[in-house]
Design goal:
This protein is an all-alpha fold and 382 residues long. The protein is built from 20 helices and two strands.
Length: 382
């Protein structure tokens, strides 16, 4: 029995490609650099729970507030970011609202954690080298406890409040995962702290040595959190039980799937860096050399190029990624013998491949409407 693909799947008839475009001119708030228009081949759809349970959205977000260690005004800006879940989990089951709520909480807490570390007002004091190891040391302790609550050596009372909230949410998710999914969940979150330390060391001491955007991708693959959130597409749909098994360890580790993950993640990094460029540019007072951003690096590596030139090159990258993503998706769904060595893809793998198309397409759509990347009234000009 073949898998019934999502109605808007770009391969639902084996040939036709769905074209989606944000046709309206993006509302800009005193932007110096316009984000180029992108025509995407990837589908996107908003989960209806975002509307049907709208009265619950604020309460789900507000659950995070006591743990956030930020002011109410600042938190309200974070709270709206929970809507990311509606864009990247369009098929999350409405009869499992707690699972949708947990993904929204994770997204909000991750933005709070990142800003606490990266912004000058946060506990990391703008990525101070003398604080980064202790800051992320608490993260390692939290992951130890998530993996084995009994053996974890550091009591929860020693953590920053936002890590307590993060742990509570990650643990609530892990409880509902099967054994394979839980091990994958912990393994994907495990390097997050250590790679953030490595990223900080590079930014503070060797940023001028970068010679390729691949060096940014290799780090951001682990610090942007996309793989961890992608795997929760199974969780929000209740996949991972005996009658609806999820992807196996071997399938997730297969070269084809890892290539698919890589293309999807690099696409999302490019989208994020393009839409967040203005925000980061203002924070660094217009100094491209201080920006850990693929648009900034692309511009710097081409003497005489403008930021607009750099953005156009990133758009070209995004278009190339989409071609590769759709090609790999077809290989997975159709069981292309050249790519799968004759092995058929499981129903779970085909389902997950379909959901990742919507995840990546939803990430793009979210960035076009997210105020975090469009409004800068709280950021002073340098």
């Amino acid at each position: 029995m073949s898998l019934k693909l999502s109605p808007q799947s770009p391969v639902d008839d084996g040939q036709n490609i769905a074209l989606n475009m944000c046709d309206r001119q993006l509302r800009q708030y005193a932007h110096r650099f316009q984000v180029p228009r992108i025509t995407t081949r990837l589908p996107f759809k908003r989960n209806p729970i975002d509307v049907s349970a709208e009265h619950l959205l604020y309460s789900w977000a507000n659950w995070v507030y006591p743990y956030s260690s930020v002011s109410r005004n600042r938190f309200d800006a974070f709270a709206s970011l929970g809507q990311f879940s509606a864009f990247v989990y369009p098929f999350g089951r409405q009869d499992l609202p707690d699972r949708f709520a947990n993904t929204a909480k994770i997204i909000i807490t991750m933005f709070i954690l990142d800003d606490h570390y990266e912004e000058s007002w946060g506990d990391g004091r703008g990525r101070r080298l003398d604080l980064c190891k202790s800051f992320w040391g608490e993260w390692e302790s939290m992951i130890d406890k998530l993996e084995d609550p009994v053996a974890a050596p550091v009591p929860i009372t020693h953590w920053a409040p936002y890590l307590v909230g993060t742990y509570a949410t990650l643990d609530a998710v892990a409880i509902d995962l099967d054994a394979v999914q839980r091990r994958r969940f912990v393994a994907l979150w495990r390097p997050y702290g250590a790679v953030n330390v490595a990223e900080t060391m590079l930014i503070k001491t060797r940023l001028h040595e970068l010679t390729s955007v691949k060096q940014i991708f290799d780090i951001r693959m682990h610090t942007i959190g996309t793989q961890q959130l992608m795997m929760l597409s199974e969780y929000v749909e209740g996949v991972g039980c005996t009658d609806r098994p999820g992807m196996t360890k071997a399938e997730w580790a297969s070269p084809l799937w890892q290539r698919y993950l890589r293309e999807c993640c690099e696409h999302m990094i490019c989208v994020n860096d393009m839409f967040s460029f203005e925000k980061e540019y203002r924070q660094e007072c217009g100094n491209l050399a201080n920006m850990f951003n693929v648009v900034a690096l692309t511009t710097r590596l081409a003497p005489g190029s403008t930021v607009s030139d750099g953005m156009r090159q990133i758009v070209a990258r995004i278009e190339a990624y989409e071609c590769a993503i759709v090609d790999i998706y077809r290989d997975i769904v159709t069981g292309d013998k050249d790519s799968r060595n004759g092995e058929p893809s499981s129903r779970a793998m085909r389902r997950m491949a379909d959901r990742m198309l919507y995840f990546v397409g939803g990430n793009y759509k979210f960035h076009t409407v997210c105020d975090r990347y469009r409004r800068f009234s709280a950021i002073s000009e340098c």
